[in-house]
Each structure stands twice: as C-alpha cells, then as structure tokens.
Write a structure and sequence with these properties.
Distance between the termini: 37 Å
Number of domains: 2
Oligomer: single chain
Order of helices and strands: HEEHEHEHEEHHEHEHHHHH
Number of helices: 12
Helix content: 40-55%
Strand content: 15-25%
Number of strands: 8
Length: 285
Amino acid sequence: MPNLSYRTKHNAKVIAAQWGKAPNASAEWYTIENKADSAEILIYDIIGFPFIEAGQFVKDLSAIKAKNILVRLNSPGGDAWDGLAVANALKAHPAKITTRIEGLAASIASIIALAGDEVQAYSNTMFMIHDPWIMTAGNQYDLREIADVLEKIGGQLNDIYHIKTGIEKDTISDMMKTETWMTAQEAKGLGFIDTILDGDSKPVKAKYDLKNIYNNVPENLSFEAQLKQFTAREIERVLIDAGASRAYAKMVAARGCTGAIQDHCEDDEAAIINTLLQTIKGEKI
C-alpha cells in the first residue's frame, strides 16, 4: 500500500496553490455520462489529491455497465497514486476502453491515456512524460526515504511506457529525466498513441501556468502565449462575472486580453484584471 501520510491539510493548500487553485476549488476533475450501451468520462482538470481522490472515481466507474467507455482527456497531470489508481481501474473494467487526448495528456494523465484498449489523439494535442516529483519538507532521513519512493514510482511508470511502446527502458528513463514533450504525431511514431484523429479539435487553452509546474514547457503552451487565443466574448464574460461594468468589459475585450493587462496594470481596475487572469487559468473558463 502506498504511504499517503503526505495528504494533510497543509500539503493540500501548498499543492493546490502550486496549481493556482484553492483546495476546495474545481474539485470535480471528472464527469461521467452513463448510457445503456456506452459511457463517456471527461477528465479535464488536475487529477486527484488535493481535490476528489481516486476512490470516488473507482466507485463511479464500477457502476458503469456499458460495453464501451470513451475517456476524453485534457489534463496537466496531478497526484501519481490517484492517477495510477484511475488507470488500473480502467484497465480492470470489462468494457472496451477508448482513451482520447483532446488537449494535453501530461505527467500522470499520460498513464491514464495508456490505460485504453485504443489510445486516440487529435493531431493538435500534446503528450508529456517525466520523472515523478513532490513538494516536501523534512530532515535528511525523511528526504532520503522520499527519494527512494520516487525512484520506485518512476520505475513503475517506466514499465508502463515500455510495455506500451517497446522502447528500451534506459531510453525511456532518459526521456523521463529530461521531461519530454511530444506532439501527437511524435507520440504515435514512438508507439504511445495508436490513432491520430483528423477531426477539428480546438487547440488546448492554458488553464494553468504550466511553466510554474514543469521545466521544458513548449513556448506555444505557455500561459502568456495562450492568453492571446482567448476570444473577445470570453474576455468580456469573465470581466462581467468579476464585477466590471458591461461597457468596461467590452472596451477591454475589444483591445485584447494581453494589451489590456499591460495598459491597466497600475489602474484601479488591476484587481479586476487579476481576477480575469485567475479565472482564465481555470476557475471559470
């Protein structure tokens, strides 16, 4: 059994803050639509602790009697133990499991993606693998023990990637160590993905400041770069929700998100702009 002693209220606050959230925010990282013949699971957020833990997901999954389950993924990762539990539960389910990457399958979300009998991805999506890491504090003995646990988890993830792709474990180890980001085409070429979908999927928008979490985030996935992709209507709606007048929201939206932030960073409306940033990062969009 994994040691889950790290799941304290203090650590929940720290980990949630690292993702730019509060521990009780965006708790429902998955939704399930269960029909007689098929079911659809949407995983579009940070997985597991400090939000809903995997136990509830496993219970909800076990209630599905459909013969086909589609798991739609757009996640930057999350808790390794919860992610492994989700992946194992999907593998153990008697239904045919199809996983479909619709934006990002990073970190432990990549393991969930590989739990499918068929792994699909839209052509404009990304796949990322890396060595597991943890935010922690303690003395030399605590840290050595944690390092040993991380090494074991990394070995388990390596096994999963190796079994799926046939790539040598030493090569996968190097890929994990350097934090490897792949396009859907690159991931398919290496054997992580089975099928590339040519359908018209929207490019993933940065709900999270990934550069605050990972080291080698592609520039086009940075939060700053993707602010430019938000439509005027999205910007206007968020500002109105944050308390701005409709006229002010229309003015900001018309000028563009990044320009408005730069122009108003010292104005009285700075708090509203900050709310806009936090909202686009994942609170309401």
